Fold this sequence. Notes:
The chain is an alpha/beta fold. The protein has helices at about 10-25, 55-60, 85-95, 110, 135-145, 155-165, 190-200, 220-235, 250-260, 275-280, 300-305, 320-325, 335-345, 350-355, 365-385, and strands at about 1-5, 30-40, 45-50, 65-70, 100-105, 120-125, 150-155, 175, 205-210, 240, 270, 285-290, 310-315, 330. It folds into two domains: about 1-180 and about 365-385, Rossmann fold, CATH 3.40.50.2000; about 190-360, Rossmann fold (3-Layer(aba) Sandwich), CATH 3.40.50.2000.
Amino acid sequence: MLSVYDGFFSGGARIVHSDVVLGLLEGGRHHRVLSIHGEVSREATRQRMEDDPCYRSLTAAGLGVTSLGRVQNAGEPAPAGFNGPELAETARAMAGADVILSLKEQPLALLNQAGLPRRPVLVCLHRSDPQNQGRALDELKAAIADGTVAACVCCAESTRMAYQAAGIPAELLHVIPNGVDLLRFRPDPARRLALRTELGIDHPAPVVVYAARYDAMKNVPLFLAAAAAWLRGTPGGQVLMCGAGMTAANPALAADIEAAFGTDRRRPHLLGVRRDMETVYAGADVVALTSTWGEAAPLCLIEGMMCGAVPVTTDVGDSASIVAGRGMVTAPDPEVIAGAWTTAVADRAAFGPALAAARELFSRTRMIASYAALIDRLHTGAARSTLPHPHRRRRR
């Protein structure tokens, strides 16, 4: 099997897909990864493939990861087309695979190139706004029209509905909800204490964590306005922000914080990209999401609540169904969100049984088994399509 990534950079889709790849590898399936970009500048952060946690986890497991070596600089247009060496490298990577996995639809711009080996492609879709994906939706439709795409995995029901509404045939769309490693993401008093000790936070202080990359769809200004309102009414409360671009070095974030907090000296802790999110979530009481569009099955909500944090989210993608009975859904209003955080902190113990009962629903084991079953069906179907018909004579 071969997975094709647009690049290695911070984001939930890459975390989920890389975990699926590792799970398939653990199940005995040989796997390789090809990344179009070797370095990208996104969310005010330069991100090298070799520094990425997903890249490191894949290579540590002995999985081969190669790149076409492209560099994407912020504000610069992508090169038109692919050159001969890039196509040759792609053909070599594809030649040894029976099934190709495309992480989202963007790599189809490469996989649709003429002259590459014909392999069934499974496209893994992780958003609910295909109309906002540039020409990637057109590439997906073109790949379906010429028979390259055999199936699409939707990480959420909202993804399936959005892509079907955009013209993708319903029979190609399969929903496999996101899952996480339940051994890693779990309530842990030792981790909770470790995080609070690291950041100088009193053990009983209420903590809200916001895990997101700095992007317009995340509506960072709304989160910050809610944080300012909550901190004004919550003595001792602490707010943590982590993800690509969530650092003091990001001037846009600095401006957002200044606009939300003004002269108030209490500010969020800016943690940037963390490789120990299980510790960050275990140290929190609330995991917050304020996105406006594009989300499907936000990984932060699942990981956070599996660690015991109460999820509080705006109604975007499948967020409402993910937190149903386990957290709270709010209107996109700072005061309403701040009030929900206060309620979630106060009622955290009451949410505990529902969060514990939901663990099996969000299991990594369930997710990987579903991917493996679909891939096996695609491989079997592809193999059968290459066999001669039993009642048809071959031409001499």
